[in-house]
What does this fold into?
Amino acid sequence: MAIHIGRREFVVTLGGAAAAWPLAARSQQRTRLRRIGVFMPGAPDHAEYQARNAAFLQGLGEFGWTVGRTVEIEYRWGQGDGQRYAVLAAELVALELEVILGTGTAVVTALLRANQNIPIVFAEVVDPVGGGLVDSLARPGGNATGFAYPEFGFSSKWLELLKDIAPRVKRVAVLRDASIASQIAMLGAMQSIAPALGLNVRAIDLRDPSFIEQAVAGFAREPNGALIIAPSARAALHRSLIAKLASVYQLPTVYPFRTDVVAGGLVSYGADPLDQFWRAAGYVDRILKGAKPADLPVQAPTKYELVVNLKAARAIGLDVPASVLARADEVVE
It folds into this structure.
């Protein structure tokens, strides 16, 4: 049977629906998920990058953002393959996200080449001004800002730490990713002070595992050698292999991150990466609330940590000086 609605009833019904629309719209607006991108150069199952992501998510939570309730996150993982960064960056940009967190100079460079509009918050970037990522630290000027890694001269502290922990060392091989311009500058900074410390410094490029094995084995044929691991996604990807080679050839090794030492490395000194990612969440929060990257200054690290693994030291017959242990933030037994 047909149902007939009179004109008066129709108007009343329409008016009631119209009154309800703003409420529904406001409800949808309150529950609309804000869209964030995260681009990390490593692998999603790697403990180091899981920890960074966890620190970022913790920071977001402390600012009131919850994944699945108030924000959604699109991830891209570089797997240590710099040749894929441009493609992955383009994928994120195509999603029209509100802000993207980028890790490392190579990743952020790819993101900036893909877009000049979506705000980018970065972490662990060396020399963002020299790399052309921002105009200045105080006034970034474009669509990117964030948290910088220590400047090149900091790498000299790794050499000093090597001499403190293993005074007999004369030769140092720096395992670096030659595709990252800042790592070339890091090597130069170390080579400039090496003679004053009685050291000879050379580079070993991080390529495939077989190349790394052969290069380290060749370096270890002569005595009094040691390794320094420059921070990169490739170094993280080959961390287990590097630790194994350092142990086999009895090479004192300085790493950039605590996670390297907890996983079996000898000693690490550097800026706390988890602190940077926690702080990056604060910038993402401010951008989601209307701030512009150009108005948020690039910040330097505020937290450094020295970590020593005594088990690793014993494995290579090294007696860690009491002076080093006294200033360590953490000693792994």
